[in-house]
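Issue 218. Parser rejects a valid record. Input:
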Amino acid sequence: MTALFALATSLLWGLADFGGGLLTRRIPALTVVVVSQVLAVIVLGAVVLATGAWTEAGPGLWYAVAAGVVGPAAMLAFYKALALGPMGVVSPLGSLGVVVPVSVGLLLGDRPGVLQFAGIGVAVAGVVLAGGPELRGAPVRRQAVLLTLVAAFGFGSVMALIAEASTTVTGLFLALFVQRVTNVLVGGAALAASVRRGGRALPQEGPGVIRAALPALAFVGLADVAANGTYAVAAQQGPVTVAAVLASLYPVVTALAARAVLKERLRAVQAAGAGLALVGTVLLATG
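Output the parser choked on:
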């Protein structure tokens, strides 16, 4: 069951990342975050009501609130990075968020093993190689790499926080609902502030683009929610290391989708950097 749920997490996160990256090329990133999360809140609210999950409210929900504050910033940074592309580089670097739960374990008394030290070195090498082509005028921008690393830290923090929010399935529904409501409040405030500074909330073509994209926006929001849920279940059902390794494969899904749909082709050094980032992630999770 751990493997099944963790692999489902990889598939859901990978497709959500791909969909979000495509949407931000036509719709402002903050709008994508807010609208997709509003749609997710509607569905989760119905699930909470149907299952009676509200009865499991407790202090652990503060972890969900914290995850909801961090999540929009991470998603915004990641979607902006995906818009700068290419996805085959950005998405693997985003998987470095696994460093956060590993670091939390170290602070709680775990000691790094040989594989963890190796993973740190391999991951750093991957970051350097993935960002290095910018110095020679390649299309990978250093801004995209920086945004991806910020997003990775945020994603890792969300994973660590949401895992502490509940230990039951119905409690997890409530925690995810609280997290997404917080996402909407934080993201909505950021969108309003951006508009006041002269930013755009709507595409240049008008609101019709958003209406046409509602099914895709709903998929992105719900896939991200479902991925958080399946990862939490996977971590509860079996060893966290197994769940983390299998869930960290989601960039492969995004990269394959980008290759199949967008026909992206990576330069050798970019592919090497992305591959090393993935290898480093696996080593960190299994160390």
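Fixed in the parser; the record now loads. Residues 39 and 218 are 6 Å apart (CA to CA).
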